[in-house]
Design goal:
Elements lengths: L2 H6 L14 H10 L6 H7 L4 E12 L2 E12 L3 E5 L6 H9 L3 E9 L6 E2 L5 H8 L1 E4 L11 H8 L6 H14 L1 H4 L11 H13 L5 E5 L7 H16 L4 E5 L3 H7 L2 E6 L2 E7 H6 L1 H7 L3
Parallel strand pairs: 3-8, 3-9, 6-7, 7-8
Antiparallel strand pairs: 1-2, 1-4, 4-5, 9-10
Length: 290
């Protein structure tokens, strides 16, 4: 590699760079800058009142352990963004919270004070109905052959009556006129931004308190990325949702989130306010394009 090429090889995942360093090298460098993170520090970032807590969580798939004693704290109406190299375990955190993988040890707690309860062993449908935890999947989770309206009805599958799901869908249409204009159209004809809005809206039909959002910007044009983050901002600040997000576009995710965690090899390497991580030169070099 020439000297010029070496100078251009910087950053990971986002930013105006000519090329990126290998994932293995990002993992090595991230591990090298990892900090000792105390529970007190995590509690402080959650304003001393965590609403979602992971305690020494060990989780993975089959018999493979991906998360190794993760601790996580986010307060009610706060947002937390997880960033890190591919394979760090970011999406595995969301999967563990919602019940998509195996929990080997540790706890997942939702709520505060006397209303806090352990959801570790609940099924995904129980976590949605009893704890108000909803998962917004990555792209292509809609039903393309169904109409927009029918997709929203599917989001209310845990409602006691069909009429309740339809009523909830109407509230979504009132909030998002762009979806209302497409209600009779098959979902497959929607633009990328409209599809992501539908995915988010379908999760809102059950009126959850906690949103687990996996890669909201993936596959979207810049103008749609801005729209999606504006929607998430509204859900957090105007509707009081607690948001835990995985975002490969680290700059966008940290600009949005109150709290940022950098993950590596199934552990938390750095934790701080989103704004602090944006200004951290080590984080910038590895994840923000220099």
């Amino acid at each position: 590699m020439s000297r010029d090429q070496e100078e251009k090889t910087r950053g990971y995942g986002a930013g105006s760079v000519d090329s990126v360093i290998s994932v293995d090298e990002v993992v090595r460098q991230t591990a090298a800058i990892a900090e000792d993170i105390s529970i007190e520090q995590l509690d402080s970032l959650a304003n001393g009142a965590p609403y979602v807590s992971l305690q020494d969580l060990v989780a993975g798939y089959g018999q493979m352990r991906i998360l190794h004693g993760i601790n996580l704290r986010v307060g009610r109406k706060q947002s937390l963004c997880l960033i890190g190299p591919n394979g760090a375990g970011k999406s595995t955190v969301l999967h563990a919270i919602f019940g998509f993988n195996n929990i080997f040890s540790g706890q997942i707690l939702v709520g505060q004070g006397d209303d806090q309860f352990d959801i570790t062993t609940l099924s995904p449908s129980q976590k949605l109905s009893k704890a108000g935890v909803a998962y917004i999947l990555q792209d292509k989770s809609i039903f393309p052959g169904m109409t927009v309206e029918e997709n929203l009805w599917m989001g209310g599958f845990l409602k006691d009556q069909t009429a309740q799901a339809k009523k909830a869908a109407e509230m979504i249409f009132d909030k998002y006129p762009q979806l209302a204009a497409r209600r009779r159209h098959q979902a497959k004809v929607l633009s990328g931004g409209e599809r992501r809005l539908l995915e988010i809206s379908r999760a809102l039909v059950m009126n959850p308190d906690v949103l687990l959002v996996d890669e909201p910007s993936i596959g979207l044009e810049p103008r749609f990325i801005d729209m999606v983050f504006e929607i998430l901002h509204d859900l957090q600040h105007n509707e009081g949702k607690t948001i835990i997000m995985v975002e490969q576009n680290a700059k966008k995710g940290l600009e949005f989130a109150d709290i940022g965690y950098v993950m590596v090899s199934g552990q938390i390497a750095i934790a701080g306010k989103g704004s602090e991580l944006l200004e951290n030169p080590k984080v910038g070099e590895l994840f923000l394009g220099g």
